[in-house]
Amino acid sequence: xxxxxxxxxxxxxxxxxxxxxxxxxxxxxxxxxxxxxxxxxxxxxxxxxxxxxxxxxxxxxxxxxxxxxxxxxxxxxxxxxxxxxxxxxxxxxxxxxxxxxxxx
Length: 104
Fold this sequence. Notes:
The chain has 104 residues and is α+β, with helices and mostly antiparallel strands. 12% of the residues lie in helices and 24% in strands. It has one helix at residues 21-32, and strands at 2-4, 35-37, 60-65, 71-77, 88-93. A three-stranded antiparallel β-sheet has the order 1-3-2, covered by helices on one side. It is flat. The N and C termini lie far apart (40 Å). The mean pLDDT is 77.
């Protein structure tokens, strides 16, 4: 599950000094689906303000199935410029071949 959740919280943004009750609600929902937050190695803003008086934010989050081996690499694509004020997030999914023997 990936998206712009518009929730600021010090759990995923070390530059933000507060904890949000909305983050608790989001965690309850994701926990109910056995999802956990996928923390980016380089915790950098994912939304950039177009006004210098406002701060950049970490509000785009990625949640994956807990202990998933298939989802192993994630990236914040800073170099991919779009019309959006949000950076693109990418995850690599390992697809394992599965052979099924058809018995007749």
